[in-house]
Write a structure and sequence with these properties.
Layout (H helix, E strand, L loop, with lengths): L5 E12 L2 E13 L4 E5 L6 H8 L8 E9 L2 E2 L5 H11 E4 L3 H4 L6 H11 L6 H11 L5 H4 L9 H14 L4 E5 L7 H18 L2 E5 L3 H7 L2 E6 L2 E7 H6 L4 H9 L47 E4 L2 E3 L9
Parallel strand pairs: 3-8, 3-9, 6-7, 7-8
Antiparallel strand pairs: 1-2, 1-4, 4-5, 9-10, 10-12, 11-12
Helix pairs in contact: 4-5, 4-7, 5-7, 7-8
The structure holds adenosine-5'-triphosphate (ATP) and magnesium ion (MG).
The site of magnesium ion has 3 residues, from helix 1.
């Protein structure tokens, strides 16, 4: 396999709290290849957003990335001089925020917002022509005329597309789509997901898709990463992970999440609670909820190769069924 576009190792992101430091990401390792869609799943509070905000350099103080390597195109973002880092982050990473109305500037036309992004990133060529191309690229009809419109003149779906067009103006190579739990209108959502697929296949854009919807992951992501309590529980090819989980948490998660493609499937929530991240020990963080837990689970458990391009942070991975 060629070198991954993004390679994260040992990422640790900490927030100070009254009860002490809380490591919302703690030893997170994963890779994303160019043109790949990685699904990211896990219960609320498992560290999905914090992990990708860390990659994007968007953790606000007093929170901070305390340790780890974030290699983007082989270069460590944490060791890069600030001006270079800004250029790289802008050009290569972009965040597709789902709340398009609040993310767009209401007092500037869509065209101006695209042109400003092009200028900010020093993209050469005629900015107006490029803005028309980008709006066309995201499927906005009559793009040349719509450049002069303000965000409120766009429908919800078109605002989403305009947001993505603005993100694409910076020529990103990785796009992080963090879905809110309050879902978009289903039609708009389907359109946005379809557009992301197209950009991935045609432009080689890598996509990290953070979602609570397993059907989205099953349909669109080659690989999936399952997070639990600030760590990666398991990663692997999506079809394999869904058919044969190699972590008891993944098994539980599969049974607890609704799937649009299997509406009649009974749901079984995972008993017990996510541990308090300000008070975790070095052992497996899932062991207090796990039917397979044994005494050895109190020792540190590394993420290990369990074959078939899969990694699991469970000493009994092979026994999960
Ligand atoms: N700014 C912050 N200050 C303190 N704690 C934070 C901050 N941001 C996140 N956390 C904590 O970090 C943990 C992980 O949060 P994160 O937002 O990454 O979860 P998530 O997996 O994205 O959840 P969801 O599915 O609900 O979006 C949570 O315990 C959260 O309370
Ligand atoms: Mg989140």
């Amino acid at each position: 396999m060629s070198a991954p576009l993004l390679s994260v190792r040992g990422l640790r992101t900490v927030f100070p709290t009254r009860r002490g430091p809380l490591a919302a990401a703690d030893g997170v390792d994963f890779d994303i290849a160019a043109g790949e869609a990685l699904g990211v799943v896990g219960e609320s509070g498992s560290g999905k957003s914090v992990t990708f905000l860390s990659v994007l350099g968007l953790i606000r103080p007093p929170g901070r990335v305390e340790a780890g390597e974030i290699l983007f195109g082989g270069r460590d973002l944490r060791r890069m001089p600030a001006p270079e880092l800004r250029a790289l982050r802008g050009r290569m990473l972009a965040l597709a925020m789902q709340d398009a109305l609040s993310a767009l500037n209401p007092s500037l036309t869509i065209g101006t917002q695209i042109v400003e992004t092009l200028r900010a990133h020093g993209i050469p060529g005629d900015p107006r022509a490029e803005a028309v191309r980008l709006l066309g690229r995201v499927g906005i009809p009559d793009a040349a005329r719509r450049l002069g419109d303000y965000p409120h003149q766009f429908s919800g779906g078109m605002r989403q597309r305009a947001m993505i067009a603005i993100s694409l103006a910076a020529r990103p190579r990785l796009l992080v789509a963090d879905e809110p739990t309050t879902a978009l209108d289903v039609t708009i959502r389907a359109q946005v997901l379809y557009l992301l697929d197209e950009l991935r296949v045609e432009d080689g854009l890598a996509v990290a898709m953070i979602t609570h919807d397993l059907a989205v992951v099953a349909e669109r992501c080659e690989r999936v990463m399952v997070m639990y309590a600030g760590q990666v529980a398991e990663t692997g090819p999506t079809a394999e992970v869904i058919a044969r989980p190699r972590h008891p948490y993944t098994r539980g998660l599969m049974e607890s999440l609704p799937r649009l493609d299997q509406p009649d499937r009974p749901l079984h929530p995972i008993p017990g609670q996510v541990p308090d991240l300000a008070a975790v020990d070095a052992g497996c963080r899932f062991r207090n909820r796990c039917a397979l837990a044994v005494a050895a689970c109190a020792a540190p458990v590394p993420l290990r190769d369990v074959g078939a391009e899969r990694l699991s942070r469970c000493i009994r991975a092979e026994e999960v069924s």
